[in-house]
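Troubleshooting: if your tokenizer reports a length mismatch, compare against these two reference records.
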Amino acid sequence: MSMPSYHRENLRETLLELAETTVRTTGVESLSLRQLARDAGVSHGAPARHFRDRQALLDALAFAGFERLNHELTDIPAVATSFEARFHALAAAYVQFAVDNAALLGLMYAVKHAEGASESLLAAGRSSMDSVVAIIAEAQAAGEVVDGDPARFALVVFAGVHGVASLATGGLLDGVTVEDATAATAELLLRALT
């Protein structure tokens, strides 16, 4: 692993980038602050200025992951105008994020559901679901989606697209492309909602 250059003010970001690379390549179990310090070319105590322990690093990594995912999902309304286009774009964005960041996504949900997860992490984790709820509620107000609890509908939508992502990252789509599986799932969900 090549050592990134850093300045004192961006050591935290450098450590998070290195941590994400480690999670992606060798798994979360191999992540250690001491190894990150070596990879960053800093003293073994330097990471402690930013992360009190390994769990704090995992929390920060999960939070950063949720922020990236939420950014991807909240950008959807800006690029798609119709509910159908936004819905398909939302499904595709989530699945693509999950496929591109499978190990990170696993860590994000594990940390979010761990006992003692911080309120800020829980809020970041809920925000992606809130994006789906908002799009569904808007479409209901416009008469494009059937009446019902938008949060309940969002949960079903999430289950469907997360299922596609899980099948894709597990190599279980049996020759169907991720794009086709995502589009088919989104289309079936749309039919149920409209």
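Reference record two:
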Amino acid sequence: MEITLQQAGFAFLAAVILVFSVMTVTTKRILRAATYLLFVLFATAGIYFQLNYSFLGAVQLLIYAGGIIVLYVFSILLTSSDAEKKEPLRNRRIVPGLVASLAGGALCLFLLLTHSFAPTVSADCEVDMHTIGHTLMGTGKYQYLLPFEAISVLLLACIVGGLLIARKRK
């Protein structure tokens, strides 16, 4: 079996996502975790671009890799200090974490094996911007205005919470 360039690129991006995801959750420094998460988000955008989903790739880079990481870094810098004593991870937290990880992996494997994942759009053409915009901002069935607004309220609450935590320390 011969591996094509697209398959090799996908394997590289998948390996980057896997390695940096593990590094994100296993590092003890929160700023390094945010940096590793940035690499994961860049590689995810690379997979979107490889699948010819240029709109989703651009959204991934602009919104997640740009905006969310900046929000994380500022909230980390506002709320954490080096003077705080870092508590080591105890064994009582490792076992539930492993159980949750195994349960999530089993659920993902079950969904991958039982779902057919039939394509709804032909792979040769890209969905036009009008259709994407109508789907994102519509209020009908299979449209995403309500989740979009819920996420914006959640991000606003995170910003206000970060500011309140930073203000209490002064």
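Descriptive notes for reference record two:
- Helices lie at 5-26, 30-50, 54-79, 91-114, 129-137, 145-169.
- Residues 4 and 73 are 38 Å apart (CA to CA).
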